[in-house]
């Protein structure tokens, strides 16, 4: 098990900065997600943590020990890639045993360990099969088996489910999480899929353009996004932004939108100029008596819920409503928001004032 601390980590490739100044801590036994869009620097961060890439500056500590200059082989970690490279000429048992055999472990011990790992992954019945004919899921389990058999301090996974189709991906995500819960080994996992990150992670780092935008538990990030980028990236449909010019004070306050006032929760900072009120689609309610009004532009039916796009004086927004609620394109509706769920952003910097 391992606690991994990252301090002001930076990586330049020539004059391009892939990772700017990342600071965060992965607690012992945590399932930790590095999340962000393509090119944001998450793979580079993971590779530095694993020892596959040297940082330009900054430090990495594993259990309090500085390891930044040490290669992967001296960090007691296992890396699981998207494309599982199994040895095609070996059967399942030999593939899993390989890391132990190459360490010179005694045959009887290797046999026992492989059996144990096969039991955990529920692949005992295929141990003597060649890997060539296996299904994608079984290949995945064999690759995981090879990673966990060494009992490393930590696992590093780079989009390990990226190549799988949606249904299977979801099942493997559940299996991976269950496996982690049984073994409790620190796991750092890269994904660009916010749902996967929310579903699997104990905590998430959200990155953009080489910068850590926020890190925290999935629900905290969802409920209290630190930036407009995070608010937009997490959640589907994304958080709505109602733009307005004005000033808000520190502390609890009311802001004016198109002639009506919305109560917002206590602000830690005041702000003025171009501001944005962030509201999640599920926190928009239709209320005939509400003075804030908009026109329904589109209705998208999703079974039990419907996504309704509404044009307001402050921009279009999406509401997630029960499908039982009758809504027609073209009608004018009154809009109400649950005050406790609102976030105010400074639109220029993108930072939340909460
Ligand atoms: P993806 O999901 O697409 O892999 P990512 O968030 O993992 O994205 P990185 O792979 O870390 O992003 O890459 C971050 C940026 O650094 C990208 O713009 C990439 O082109 C650049 N980069 C990565 N490795 C190198 C390299 N060896 N030399 C030059 N530029 C690189």
From TrEMBL:
<dbReference type="InterPro" id="IPR003439">
    <property type="entry name" value="ABC_transporter-like_ATP-bd"/>
</dbReference>
<comment type="similarity">
    <text>Belongs to the ABC transporter superfamily.</text>
</comment>
<dbReference type="InterPro" id="IPR017871">
    <property type="entry name" value="ABC_transporter-like_CS"/>
</dbReference>
<keyword id="KW-0472">Membrane</keyword>
<dbReference type="Pfam" id="PF08402">
    <property type="entry name" value="TOBE_2"/>
</dbReference>
<dbReference type="InterPro" id="IPR012340">
    <property type="entry name" value="NA-bd_OB-fold"/>
</dbReference>
<dbReference type="GO" id="GO:0005524">
    <property type="term" value="F:ATP binding"/>
</dbReference>
<keyword id="KW-0813">Transport</keyword>
<keyword id="KW-0067">ATP-binding</keyword>
<keyword id="KW-1003">Cell membrane</keyword>
<feature type="domain" description="ABC transporter">
    <location>
        <begin position="4"/>
        <end position="234"/>
    </location>
</feature>
<protein>
    <submittedName>
        <fullName>ABC transporter ATP-binding protein</fullName>
    </submittedName>
</protein>
<dbReference type="InterPro" id="IPR027417">
    <property type="entry name" value="P-loop_NTPase"/>
</dbReference>
<dbReference type="InterPro" id="IPR008995">
    <property type="entry name" value="Mo/tungstate-bd_C_term_dom"/>
</dbReference>
<keyword id="KW-0547">Nucleotide-binding</keyword>
<keyword id="KW-1278">Translocase</keyword>
<dbReference type="InterPro" id="IPR047641">
    <property type="entry name" value="ABC_transpr_MalK/UgpC-like"/>
</dbReference>
<dbReference type="InterPro" id="IPR013611">
    <property type="entry name" value="Transp-assoc_OB_typ2"/>
</dbReference>
<dbReference type="InterPro" id="IPR003593">
    <property type="entry name" value="AAA+_ATPase"/>
</dbReference>
<dbReference type="Pfam" id="PF00005">
    <property type="entry name" value="ABC_tran"/>
</dbReference>
């Amino acid at each position: 098990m391992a606690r991994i601390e990252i301090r002001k980590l930076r990586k330049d490739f020539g004059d391009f900065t892939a990772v700017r100044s990342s600071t965060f801590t992965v607690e012992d036994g945590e399932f930790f997600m590095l999340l962000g869009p393509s090119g944001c620097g998450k793979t580079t961060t993971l590779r530095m943590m694993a020892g596959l890439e040297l940082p330009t500056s900054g430090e990495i500590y594993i259990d309090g020990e500085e390891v930044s200059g040490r290669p992967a082989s001296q960090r007691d970690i296992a890396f699981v890639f998207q494309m599982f490279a199994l040895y095609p000429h070996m059967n399942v048992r030999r593939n899993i045993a390989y890391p132990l055999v190459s360490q010179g472990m005694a045959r009887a011990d290797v046999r026992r360990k492989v059996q144990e790992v096969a039991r955990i992954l529920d692949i005992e019945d295929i141990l003597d099969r060649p890997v060539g004919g296996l299904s994608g899921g079984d290949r995945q389990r064999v690759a995981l088996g090879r990673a966990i058999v060494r009992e490393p301090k930590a696992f590093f996974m780079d989009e390990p489910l990226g190549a799988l189709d949606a249904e299977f991906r979801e099942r493997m995500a559940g299996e991976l999480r269950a496996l982690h819960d049984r073994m409790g080994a620190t796991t750092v996992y890269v994904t660009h899929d916010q749902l996967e990150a929310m579903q699997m992670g104990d905590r998430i780092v959200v990155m953009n353009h080489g910068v850590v935008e926020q890190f925290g538990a999935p629900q905290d990030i969802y409920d209290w996004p630190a930036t407009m980028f995070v608010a937009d990236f997490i959640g589907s449909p994304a958080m709505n932004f109602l733009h307005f010019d004005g000033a808000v004070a520190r502390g609890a306050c009311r802001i004016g939108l198109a002639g009506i006032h919305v109560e917002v929760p206590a602000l830690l900072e005041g702000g003025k100029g171009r501001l944005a009120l962030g509201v999640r689609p599920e926190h928009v309610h239709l209320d005939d008596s509400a003075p804030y009004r908009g026109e329904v532009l589109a209705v998208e039916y999703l079974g039990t819920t419907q996504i309704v796009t509404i044009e307001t004086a402050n921009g279009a927004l999406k509401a997630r409503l029960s499908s039982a609620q009758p809504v027609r394109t073209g009608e004018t509706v009154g809009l109400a928001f649950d005050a406790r769920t609102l976030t105010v952003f400074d639109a220029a910097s993108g930072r939340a004032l909460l």
